[in-house]
Structures
1.
Amino acid sequence: MNLSLYQKLALSIMVIFGIICALVYSWSKQLELTSQHHGEQNLHLQLAEHLVQDNPLIKEGVYDYKALENLFHTLMLLGPAFEFYFVDETGKILTYSAKPGKVKRSHINLDPLKQLIINPKSAPVYGDDPRNTQGKKIFSVAPVYNQKSLQGYLYVIIGGEAYDTSLNTIKNNDQLWLTALWLGAALVCLLIAMLILLRFFTNPIQRLARDVSKIEAANYSITDTKLSNYSTQKSNEVHSLGRSIQAMITRIDEQFKALEQSDKQRKELLTHLSHDLRTPLASLQGFLEVLNQSGAQLSAKEQREYLHVSLNNCDQLKQLIEQIFELAHLENGEISIHKETFNLGELIYDCIAKFSLTAEKKGLNLTVKPAICDFPVVADIAKLERVLSNLIDNAIRHTPKGGSIAVHVKHIDKAQLFVQVSDTGVGIKHDELNAIFNPHYQASNSNNEGRQQGGLGLAICKGLLKLMDSEINVQSELGKGTMFSFNLPQKIKV
């Protein structure tokens, strides 16, 4: 049988409620009966003693059992709630007033009688009911003497058979049934109120279960799934759990989308790389085929030109393949960083010298600001040289003849330096600034100067700087130039 959480809790509460009601009712009835017996026994405690003292027939010790039976009959007519018995010192019932067959016992246990005589405050004390072999009744008792010799006991049952019959008749009265009905109705209303409260408290759990089922049915996508709203009260654990689960599922959904986007980008990257590799490879193959088939018909100058172009294509292929491997190692976390302290100015001037000839041919002005930048920094010198070389190479390719390129070093604070590589080139559109660091992305106004570029340089720069706990930023204005900047620590952090 499949039951919901609310149904299980409701069923459990109903069972527990019923058991508790039964126990409380039984305990209250027992307490009521005990209190009633205590009061009645204390009220009639000296009844038997007064009868012994006031009745000459008993007081003088002359026991006419027939006369005593008539006396008992008269007393029972006056007080139907009482039954009178005379027992001897062994507990044998000698006389009483009752129809034949009504009295079931011939003897009674005298211990309760003696207990009440010795200690009247021990009430309620229960003695044997002569009319019921298993029954017990409260009683009043008094010893009967004849010249100081114990003859027996006057044993008076309080609340006898006639009293019980009358009481049972009253209990069957409509008014008592009406009272019991009202009591039952009150208990049912209380149970309904408890079930409503239980429904109120478990409803958020059911909503949460429905939300999770919806998300599971939607393959854990929350794009088209409407979720419930939960309050922000920290004291409500269920609502807090609902918010946490929604936040977790939102995070999972974001990660799924990021993975899908990453997979899409990888496919696009493979497509672009295939094209980038095919172009220089096809050019290389074409020139080599010409040299192979028509080598004797070509002049020495044409052969040198074809070989030069082929070597350039080989160099482009080599650089592109190296960039692909470097980016793959960065993404897989396979590149380690070896930090050391070195002079940043020396590294910058080394990179400037490497590109000085290219810049001179293009009529570009390469400068370092300040000219003397004797700044010790803590970084991986090889990785930083790779970053600076990529940024300067990009600046040269995108800066027209007569422009300028500057590497500027600034202080951020006592422990940080700010490195800027700026140019007066073509610039980058504002809506493309966030995309230029993606692998293989090339801005719409990029200038490759006849060379095939893989578009991986800035992605590699970003990855290398991230390994050195730095972040690259870009500012650009179309037609006026671009500036890349990143920070470097001047000393090892303690």
2.
Amino acid sequence: MNIGIDKIGFATSQYVLNMNDLACARGAEPEKFSIGLMLDALSITPISEDIVTLATTASHDILTEQDKADIDMVILATESGIDQSKAASVYVHSLLGIQSFARSFEIKEACYAATAALNYAKLHVSTNPDSKVLVVASDIAKYGIGSAGESTQGAGAVAMLVSSNPRILTFNDDNVAQTRDIMDFWRPNYSTTPYVNGIYSTKQYLDSLKTTWAEYQKRHQTDLKDFAAMCLHLPFPKLALKGLNKLITKNLPEQNKTQLLANFEHSIAYSRKVGNIYTGSLYLGLLSLLETSDTIKAGDKIGLFSYGSGAVSEIFSANLVEGYKAMLKPSRLLDLDKRSPLSVTEYEKLFYEEADLDEEGSATFNNYKTGSYRLKGIEQHQRIYIKNED
């Protein structure tokens, strides 16, 4: 049975911060971000946008009423959860109007979680061929003002509908995963921003890629020349480029090397304008590749490297199916250019804004721009979401 991704949707904030402006405000050379990180802009969220609104908007854009009737599982992968008990997927399920008899739950392992969710979805569909599973990776990457990680923030959600006989790509049963207990990036319950051992984390990312790839090659007797493209987790694009270059060996034919590097550039086109979206970063790269590359084609094999700090990594592959381009949105780069630009002062104001709860645990928010859904406020400690009027 062929199982894979039938539809992909994406949503990000309606506000954007230009990296040149941030560099100027922080006394850094613009090239430090544009070349050193390969980032041009960051999506910035107001208080009325969160992982639920992003996830619901990304899903709303791709689902039909028939999809909502067929979906029997909703999985939301995130590392910026809004509640220690209630899964964000339950809100998404309700806001979208998905049929009641569906499982809904949240899954966590840093930026790796969406890959685990896709594996779970694949297993579910394999035993329930008529099922559809909605997998959403939704996160807001937020670091301290002036911190080392500030320039790698971002926000967004990638929604993927997993089914049999998919119209975009089919998964190959070749997953190889690795777990190692390390402290490269973590966020305790009492902290609103993460703790990062930056240099150590980049070394762990690259070493996990190297060792997982070696095991993948050993198990499946394969080489880079078998892939039309490699999509890698994108905490920032320059790190992924370093990773890809480590995989490219001297005996790889020049034609294959050229193709892989060209398609890598296509895979980072969206992330350059959005920044780090944690669990969705790998899949935003995949979507960017599919929508901006004019050299990949049906039947091509795409490699994917997933990494989540802490740390879990995984390499797997998928093949594009005939007609996949009809399921995509080639105008997405133009949509990203429609976001409202923020000055650094405006960005910092949004960054520091928090819910001002009254004695009953209620608060209302300013009417900022959001996607199709927004967080209206909090009533007696309960989050109130609404759909924006068209």
